[in-house]
Amino acid sequence: MKFLPEGLLCESEENKRYFENLNTLYEAMAESRTLEARAVVCEGSHNLIVDLGVIKGVIPREEAAIGIAEGTTRDIAIISRVNKPVCFKITAFERDCYGKTVAVLSRRKAQLECQEKFLANLRPGDIIPARVTHLEQFGAFVDIGCGIVSLIPIDMISVSRISHPKDRFYVGENIRAVVKSIEGNRISLTHKELLGTWEENVSQYEPGETVSGVIRSVEDYGIFVELAPNLAGLAELKAGVHPGQQASVYIKSMIPDKMKVKLIIVDAFDEEIPLPPLRYYIDKGHLSHWIYSPVQSEKLIETVFDE
């Protein structure tokens, strides 16, 4: 079985087949199949009600997530699932007070299986799918399987520095990430290694071109302009420019041994432009060692995954 972030299984034909009738739901229970459907209500007692199409499903509070019964996971983790897909296993069928059949579900059991059969087998350098769940100043929280969340620290998101993860991601975005380290059940992630080396990024540009960019910081000695998530250049100072602005910049020169791109700002302006799709130079498999800097560079920037 393939373990995916919540929301990616919901619309698959295989998943939909089990909601056709009661017989297929019984089949899913017999096979201990992990399914996915939308949670529609969180009761006052924090039981989650799930729409199974032909019948109603109930995830008891203690079965809503790993750690709820132990008190290590807060109830907000249950409440926040309303109107979103949730994964679960069917554990029983019961009759409610009206005599109607109700499926008893467990999200916790689906998460435990994901931990044991997928996450426990990961090692640093593995590239995995993830879905952005929420963004904080210090990093992006992402679902790495069955609603189990991990963190990409802000400095691991890209080589080009950003002031907030919202400058790079949006909630609900499907991304790729790399396992950085593992301590027990805690998995730390990185992302910048998938966005290309200096040479891969700079190969998209030529001196003499005028291209688009984003103002990232204004320093006493110049203005840093992001050309791509893993590539920024330094422009000459220009009055009235501030971080977050869109810009058009002229490329003066590229200096591989110093990893520098020299720019001149033609124009800088305030405009909300949707985040462009991320370009991944690597999106699957395993990374043992990643070097960002070119061979002739005076400075070495690298990530070592396999010690």
TrEMBL record:
GO CC terms, sorted: ribonucleoprotein complex; ribosome
Taxonomy, superkingdom: Bacteria
Alphabetized UniProt keyword annotations: Ribonucleoprotein, Ribosomal protein
Presence of keyword Transcription regulation: no
Domain (S1 motif) ranges: 125-192, 208-278
SUPFAM superfamilies: Nucleic acid-binding proteins
Database matches in SMART domains: S1 (SM00316)
Gene Ontology biological-process entries: translation
Gene Ontology terms for molecular function: mRNA binding; structural constituent of ribosome
Keyword Ribonucleoprotein (UniProt): yes
Cited Pfam families: S1
Family of the protein in this entry: Belongs to the bacterial ribosomal protein bS1 family.
Name of the protein in question: S1 RNA-binding domain-containing protein
Naturally occurring in which organism (per UniProt): Fumia xinanensis
Lineage start: Bacteria, Bacillati, Bacillota, Clostridia, Eubacteriales
